[in-house]
Specification:
This protein is an alpha/beta fold. It folds into 2 domains: 7-138, Rossmann fold; 146-226, PAS domain (Beta-Lactamase, 2-Layer Sandwich), CATH 3.30.450.20. It contains 7 helices and 11 strands. The chain has helices at 16-26, 40-49, 87-95, 106-110, 112-145, 164-170, 189-206; strands at residues 7-12, 32-37, 54-58, 60-61, 64-65, 78-82, 100-103, 151-153, 159-162, 212-216, 222-226.
């Protein structure tokens, strides 16, 4: 059975009864380490020392507003807790970057671990998606910087991507949609058939295909290439 990661959670709550109820709720969450503070100053000190995986904070604290703990997009998620009548403040907190808010009741505080786990899962997904986009952007920048033709085709041989050097070589417009263009269309019938019947299947099986074919640009120029 996989071991769940340990999450460091900071709870900022100046009401001892509420803090006790929340702490009791987290006692069954072995993968969560809950640190309780009662003020913004204490919370900020903890955050600066060890950035948490999640902050759960009351909206109103003795030394300020819990919204002061809202982190930028690269930080950590925050759940804000409000009393009845503070819902407008909570909605404002969501707009400012809070991941979730709850109205404090005995039931909602007792179920905070479930809310916290959901928020951290969603946050991890957002971070993973952002990192994937950044990796894709870096890869695209590298592909666009090379003077060689680099393209990606689907299983049917239709292009899904071609870099600007490839577009220039084959005479494809800079912003032309390539999704209806087959790589085989820029080869002689014999080379095109070789790509579809040999190249793509072998690349799928073995991860690559090596051979020589001749590209034919839209203007009729021929370019001998190695794959």
């Amino acid at each position: 059975m996989p071991v769940q990661p340990e999450y460091n959670i900071i709870l900022v709550e100046d009401d001892p009864d509420h803090a006790t109820l929340i702490n009791r709720a987290f006692e069954t969450e072995a993968h969560c380490r809950l640190v309780i503070t009662t003020s913004l100053a204490q919370a900020k000190s903890l955050i600066n020392h060890t950035p948490p995986d999640l902050v759960i904070t009351d909206i109103r604290l003795p030394d300020g507003q819990g919204t002061e703990l809202l982190a930028p997009a690269t930080g950590f998620p925050t759940i804000v807790m409000t009393s009845h009548g503070d819902e407008k403040v909570a909605v404002s907190a969501i707009k400012s970057g809070a991941a979730e808010y709850i109205v404090k009741t005995q039931e909602s505080l007792a179920s905070l671990p479930r809310t916290a786990n959901r928020v951290m899962r969603e946050w991890r997904l957002v971070i993973d998606q952002r990192l994937a986009r950044e990796r894709q952007q870096r890869l695209t920048a590298i592909l666009e910087a090379t003077p060689d033709l680099i393209c990606i085709a689907n299983l049917d041989g239709f292009l899904t991507y071609i870099n600007q050097s490839g577009r220039k070589l084959l005479g494809i417009g800079k912003n032309e949609d390539v999704r209806r263009i087959r790589l085989a269309d820029f080869h002689s019938p014999a080379d095109g058939q070789k790509i579809l019947s040999e190249g793509i299947p072998q690349a799928i099986r073995e991860g690559m295909w090596t051979d020589e074919t001749t590209f034919m640009s839209l203007s009729g120029d021929k370019v001998l290439t190695s794959q």
